[in-house]
Amino acid sequence: MLPVKRLCMRNFTAFEDLDLEFASGVNVFVGENATGKSHILKLLFACLRALTTGREIGKCLHNAFFPPNEPAAMLLGRLVRRGVGDAKAFVKIDFSKARLEFEFSRKARSKVTVTSSPPREMFKGFGTIFIPPKEMLVHAPGFYQLWVEGGLHFDETYAEIVRIAGKKPRRGPRRREWSGLLARIEDMLGIRPNTLDRVYEKGGKFFLRSKQGEIEFELVSEGYRSLALIWLLVRNGSLGGKTVLLWDEPEAHICPTRMQLLGEVLWSLADQGAQIFLATHNYFFLKHLELQRANRSWRVHSLYFAEPNKRLVKYESHEDIYALQQNPVIAAFSQIRELEIKRAFPEGESP
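Request: output the structure for the sequence above.
Response:
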C-alpha cells in the first residue's frame, strides 16, 4: 500500500495554511460547517484520480468540485482562497516514497503547474473511491451517461460512485479475509444465506434480494442502501486492500443503534489495508470508531475558525479525541449533557 502520509497546502479554498500528517488506517475530520472538511476529501480524490488514471490534475481537480461542462466553473482560480489578491494556491501530497506538488493562480482556467509528480506505475492496481453524503444508487438509471453528456449538474464524485457500483460482482468463493465483513452487512440487510446476487444491478436499476424477496432500491431505507453499497464495492473488486476510501458523512442515514456495525465495517476495511478518510458531525459514530480502535492506526483532525470575523480556518490533530482543544462533536455532546443535568436538578437543588 502507498498510504497518503501528509497534505500541505496554502491559499486553497478556506485554508490559508494547512499541514496534516495522516494515519495509514483511519483518518477522521471533525469541524463546524464550512470549515473545509469536504474540500479536503475532494482534493485528495482529485489528486489520487489523476495519479491512478493518468488524467491531467487540473481536469480532475475541476471535475471534483464543479460539473464538468460548466464553462464558468472552468476557472480553477475560483479555488484560490478569497481575499488574498493574486496569490497562488499551492498543494503538496507526500506518499511513502513519492510526492505530488503543484500550484495554480487565481487567473488559471484549467492550467496547473506541476513541480513534482510520482510515476503512474507506482499506483498500478490502486483505486480511489469517494462516497458522497447523498446516497446515489437509487438515482442510477441513466445517471452516468447523462452526466457524461453534460445533462446533469453534479460533480464527478456523484457520477463515479454510480459507475463503479454498476460493475459486475466477482463470481466464485469469497476471499476469507472479507467473509466476516460481508456477513455482518448481510445479516443487517436480512439477506438469505446462499444467494449469489444479494445486491445487484439490472437494467440500470439496483435491487436488494433479501428474505422478503426482490426489493427495488427505491423501497430500501437509505441507511441500508449505504451499507449495501459497501457490500457491492467489496464484491465487485472496487474496494479492497489497495484502495483509498473517502466518505463524506458516512453516518448520514444510519440510526445510532447501527453505528457500531458501521464502525466495525470500516475498521475491517482498514485491517485489509485500505486507507480511510471520513468527515463526520456525529458523536455516536466518532465514539464507536474510538472504542473499536484498539491499537490500530488512526488520527482525528479538527478544523475550526480561529477568527470568526475573518473566517480563517485553523487545525489540530491527535489520536485522542479528548486531547483536541477544538472538537465540536464532543463539545455538542457535553452541552446536551449539561442541559439535561440542569433540567433534572434545577438551580438550588443538588444531585
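The longest helix spans residues 37-53.
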